[in-house]
Structure formats: C-alpha cells, structure tokens
Write a structure and sequence with these properties.
This protein is an alpha/beta fold. The protein is 42% helix and 13% strand. Strands 3-2-4-13-5 form a 5-stranded mixed β-sheet.
C-alpha cells in the first residue's frame, strides 16, 4: 500500500478513460474446466520490494522444477511503470497469462473483459481457509477475480510510556478502540505533557492511494460509505453528514498542529510523535526501536466502531488464457509453506487463516494479532470492488489533500461525489459482465 505514488495512481485512473462513454458487453470465459491445454504461461510481477521479488523468482523456479505440465516465465516491471504497462497490454489485447494487480484496481479490467474469474479453480477447502477479507476484496459481480498471498491492515503504533504518562488506556481489541472524542483528548494531553506534534499519519507518503487506504476507514467508522451499496452513486454517501464530521476531525488535527509533517519518515522513530497511524509494514522498524514499549491499537472509533482498510497485491488471470494452466501456478504460491515465505518477505498477514493463526506475530498473543483479528472478525472494509474504484480513489485522494490544506470539508466531498457520479453515468452504471455457459 505505502508504495503507490501519485504517478502510479494517475496511470491507473487513466485506464478508466479507455471505456468511458461506451458500454462493453464482454462474454467472460468460465474459468477452470479441469483440463490443461496450455503448456507455457507468462507471469508479470511488479518490481517493488527486493525481498518480495526474490521470493517470486524462487516460486517460478520451484514451480517449473516440480512438474512437467506447465512452464512459467517471469517478467519483472518496475513498480512505477507497472500500471501503465498493464493498461497498454490490455488495450493491445496482449496481457500476460497471470498478472499481479493491486486490490480493487482489477475490476476495471474485469469489467472490460480482460480477465476471467478464478472461483471455479479453487477447491472448497482453499476457499474456506482464505481470510474473508481476501475473498471480499477479490469479488465482483458475484465472482472471484483475484486472490492474494497476503493481506494488509491498519492500526496505530503507540509509545506505551507516553500514553501511561498521561493516564490513557491502551486498547487491546477493536471493541476497545478509543472514541474520536477520547482520541482528541489524548492528543491534547500529549501536547500538554511535552509532545508538541504527537501524531504521525505518514503525511510524507503524499497524495496517492495511501490517502484512500488510510482515510476511507474514517468514513466507514462514522457509519457511512463512499458509494451506495449497489455502487449506483456517491452523492449522499461520501458527502453525507457523518463523512463530513469524520474528515473534519482529520482537518482539525492539522489545523491544531498535532500532525508532524514527517518529511524524514522519522517522526515516530525519533520520538517527535508518539502515535503513528500506519499499516503492518512498519512493525519491524518500530519494534527494533522501542521493543516492549511499542503497542499496537486500533484506529479511533468515529461513532460506528473502528474500521481498518484491507487488500494488497493479488493474482489475476487473462481472459484469453487457459485458466487451468494459470491456476496451477497460482495455487502453487498459495500452499502454506510458500505463503508463509511470501508473507514474511512482505511483512504482511498470510492470506490463509490456518497459516496466519500459527504464525508467531499474527497468532494468539503475537504482537500483530490485532491485525488478524480485524481481518477475521469483520472490522475491515474492502475498498469498493467495482470498476468505478479508480475514479473513487482519485476523487477521494484529491478531497483529502484539499481538506488537509484547509478547504471546506463539505465542499471538497461534494466535488468528489460529483466526479464519481459523472463517471458512473458516463459508463451507463457499469453493467455487470455476462458469463459464458
């Protein structure tokens, strides 16, 4: 999540313009039929974190050595260029057999007929063992189009001695999350105790997908959403009173100077801030700095219970490829031992419950158990699994950026909702794909 830049987001959003104003009526391939008819497959992977790339390379080598039915080749594409490369390949009808794609962005390609569902490929045992969040984030039009090796989560890392100094409680379960009023009081008390800018929200990540990932949970926690449940409109949801109230708190933190700009990405490590709102990926760095003085707590409750984001990179299959051949490789990566290796390389939660529950960090009593509980017990919400999401993300990110800069909150959200609704209208409501018999 943290590595998506504004340039990448613009490239992803640009994909939506390919189909705007036209209504494709693709007939989608049915997925796996139990027979492998393709002996070679091409795989694309974004060249991001070195440890993740190394593991994927190992998986391809091990897969090829393990059987003789399918030979896989791997193409690595720099992450900054990845979205543009996918978009260009889709436009040319030249997607590889297996692609990895960030959660939620797959559905623009699914809607255009470039992908095929993979639920017919999954065994019931595998599907039952996947985290519910993995299934949610990969599902569109009642079919599963993408599946990941790991998932993500948000929380707040806190420096325990500072919270103890002001007498603040340390929540241990999502049900115990600080109310937003309690959280605001904690910020004020921390400042009075000497921490002038006690809050780090990773403002250094800048405008990009991270704003959607971190701040959409504020809207969900307030009891509303960014879209209607049938994805028909944003007006009345993203710009509703609860959403305005939630993001007004966010604006207040900046206006009061509680937020460290964190230009050096060291606000929490150096102790300038003692609360850091961020995801699981910062655990190792923070743990090395603070040891047992580090605690992980849920995001604040804005009125309807704490909520967290979810979703990460996932596998998807080209509509023109042999799904059985592609799935043979994907299934190989989802085996428990390999899933553990990738999750450890990514610093992320394994996508299978059985693997996550046996892990020292994510299992019972582990330092990151909170993230697993949030994903398994329904405290996370997927970013809208729908082809309009690219526009939702762009509009929401701009609104958050404007709110941080002091814009009227309601007006910023009104503009975002109008932009989203214009996209839905231009694409005639995004009619769902038709499936072959």
């Amino acid at each position: 999540m943290r590595r998506i830049s504004i340039a990448l987001l613009i490239a992803i959003v640009g994909a939506g313009a390919i189909w705007a104003g036209g209504q494709p009526e693709p007939t989608v391939a049915p997925g796996c039929d139990g027979e492998i008819t393709q002996s070679e497959i091409e795989i694309w992977w974004h060249e991001g974190a070195e440890a993740e790339v190394r593991v994927v390379e190992e998986f391809v080598e091990e897969f090829n050595a393990s059987q003789n039915d399918v030979t896989a080749s791997l193409t690595l594409i720099p992450e900054a260029d990845y979205a543009e490369a996918l978009r260009g390949a889709a436009a040319a009808g030249d997607l590889p057999d297996v692609v990895d794609t960030d959660a939620s962005f797959a559905f623009s390609y699914a809607w255009a007929g470039d992908l095929q569902p993979v639920d017919t490929c999954m065994s019931p045992e595998l599907q039952d063992d996947l985290l519910s969040s993995i299934v949610q984030q990969g599902t569109y039009a009642d079919r599963i189009w993408a599946v990941g090796m790991f998932d993500s989560g948000l929380g707040q890392y806190v420096y325990r001695p500072a919270l103890e100094e002001i007498g603040a409680r340390i929540p241990e379960h999502p049900e115990e999350a600080w109310t937003i009023e309690e959280f605001n009081d904690i910020l004020a008390d921390l400042r009075e105790a000497g921490w002038e800018q006690p809050l780090d929200v990773k403002q250094n990540y800048g405008l990009g997908e991270y704003y959607s990932y971190l701040y959409m949970p504020f809207v969900w926690s307030a009891g509303t959403d960014v879209l209607a449940s049938d994805f028909s409109q944003s007006d009345g949801y993203l710009n509703s009173d609860p959403a305005v109230d939630a993001l007004t708190h966010k604006q207040m933190w900046h206006e009061e100077g509680y937020v460290d700009a964190n230009e050096d990405d060291a606000a929490f490590i150096e102790g300038r801030s003692v609360i850091s709102m961020v995801g699981h990926w910062e655990y190792t760095r923070y743990k090395d700095a603070f040891g047992d003085d580090l605690a992980v707590v849920p995001l604040p409750d804005f009125g309807a219970g704490t909520r967290s984001g979810q979703g990460s990179w996932q596998w998807a299959v080209n509509a023109d490829s042999d799904a059985d051949a592609a799935w043979k490789f994907i299934e190989f990566t989802l085996e428990p031992e390999r899933m553990t290796r990738m999750a450890d390389a990514a610093g992320a939660l394994p996508a299978r419950s059985s693997v996550a529950e046996d892990h020292d960090l994510w299992g019972p009593g582990g330092d990151l158990e909170l993230f697993r509980i949030q994903l398994e017990e329904g405290y996370t919400v997927p970013r809208p699994p729908h082809p309009v999401y690219a526009t939702v993300s762009s509009a929401f990110n701009q609104a958050v950026h404007d709110i941080i800069d002091g814009a009227d909150v309601r007006q910023a959200l009104d503009r975002a909702a109008a932009e989203i609704d214009a996209d839905i209208e231009a694409n005639e409501g995004y009619p769902e794909p038709q499936f072959a018999d």
